[in-house]
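Input chain follows. Return structure tokens only.
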Amino acid sequence: MQHRRFTVPAKVRVMINTWAIGRDERFWEDAEEFVPERMCPGMNFAMANIEVMLVNLIHRFDWELPLGQERHDIDMTEVFGIVVHRKQKLLLVPKLCV
């Protein structure tokens, strides 16, 4: 494979065609198949940011059920689809840790 070098002048905006990179048959098996892992270069960065946010929420707050609700009142029924999610949203009240 031949490598090419380009000199990009200062203050020039460079647009990268990630769609073409993700479907280049020279590099990908089943290049025309949609595979999100190879199309989203920021996915790992996004996952790390989500983990940091979640850790901060867990670390900085005590989570309690709303007044009048008990543990046995929580509905853990799941709904199946492309992804599995809870049928009923979980409602919790954050209490700042001191």
